[in-house]
């Protein structure tokens, strides 16, 4: 893209349960590898998600993309599938994946990348805690 590019961010939060584990390992071995996040009876996080869309301003509307529309897309394709859910069990788009923040971030990107009507998905950031976040900008 050439010219003036605007980066638009929508922030959402969700609460979800998960467990990090490899099914072929014992509970003890999983605890060695994944620590507290491998608790066999699950645990939760309050996640914050930031979705950034890059694009040019539509001279007609003055928008890159109607932020209300972006909010609705994120709700429909991501938040409704993760909020107050168990990511290991309830979330179809995490099936077969270990529910690390890295894998969740990429899976959220994949949920959204072909749904953005104007501009393009630029990055997905997932905050697992105040101090840790994970960012994906697509394949290089
Ligand atoms: Ni955890």
Question: Structural class of the secondary structure composition?
Answer: alpha+beta
Question: Which runs of at least 5 residues are low in confidence (pLDDT < 50)?
Answer: none
What would the CATH topology be?
A: Tetrahydropterin Synthase, Chain A
Radius of gyration: 17 Å
Mean pLDDT: 96
The dominant shape is: elongated
The unique ligands bound to this protein are: nickel (II) ion
Please state the second-level CATH architecture: 2-Layer Sandwich
The H-level CATH homologous superfamily, spelled out, is: 6-pyruvoyl tetrahydropterin synthase/QueD
Give the tally of structural domains: 1
Order of helices and strands: EHEHEHEE
Sequence of strands across the biggest β-sheet: 3-1-2-4-5
Model description:
This protein has 140 residues and is of the alpha+beta class. The protein contains 3 helices and 5 strands. Helices cover 26% and strands 29% of the residues. The longest helix has 16 residues, at 67-82. The two termini are 16 Å apart. Nickel (II) ion (NI) is lined by residues 18, 37, 43, 45.
